[in-house]
Amino acid sequence: MSAVRPGEAGATRACPHCKATILESSAVCPACRGHLRFDAAATDAAQRFVPLHVEGTLRGDDHGSFEYTMVVVIRNERGEEVGRHVAGVGAVFPGEARSFSVSVEAVPVPAGKRRRH
């Protein structure tokens, strides 16, 4: 969980459905897509934006058979690693393919919830 105080931007909690660590402000769990609350402000998707989206495909024909590990790493402005997660592992054989998609969904932080340094 987060060292950020509850109610501040970036505060986290556990999803009651899948136990993934999610933002306290989430109305829907990004991992299991379980609904967490149904108030109008929480479900307003018009504010959401995607500042990063990357897609790619691996094909077994390009390099023969191989194993893969998908690792997601988050770094702060100083290049220090603040998070690392193995998102999945597997193998690709000739004639097979795996597609990967990574996106960052964001929502503006209300002025009253910003952290003060």
Please estimate the helix content.
under 10%
Q: What does the average pLDDT come to? A: 84
Show unreliable segments: none
Total domain units: 2
Largest beta sheet: strand ordering: 1-2
Distance N terminus to C terminus?
Answer: 20 Å
Instruction: State the helix count.
Output: 1
Reading the helices and strands in chain order gives EEEHEEE
Question: Given the helix and strand composition, which structural class is it?
Answer: mainly beta
Describe the structure.
The protein has 117 residues and is mainly beta. It folds into two domains: 1-47, no CATH class; 49-107, no CATH class. The chain has one helix at residues 60-63, and strands at residues 12-14, 21-23, 49-59, 66-75, 81-92, 97-106. The strands form three sheets. It has a two-stranded antiparallel sheet with strand order 1-2. Strand 4 (66-75) and strand 5 form a beta hairpin. The mean pLDDT is 84.
Based on the model shown, name its key terms.
single chain, 117 residues, two-stranded antiparallel ribbon, two-stranded antiparallel sheet, 1 helix, elongated
Outline of this structure?
This protein has 117 residues and is mostly beta strands. Helix content is 3%, strand content 42%.
Please specify the SSE layout and strand pairing.
Elements: E1 12-14, E2 21-23, E3 49-59, H1 60-63, E4 66-75, E5 81-92, E6 97-106
Antiparallel strand pairs: 1-2, 3-6, 4-5
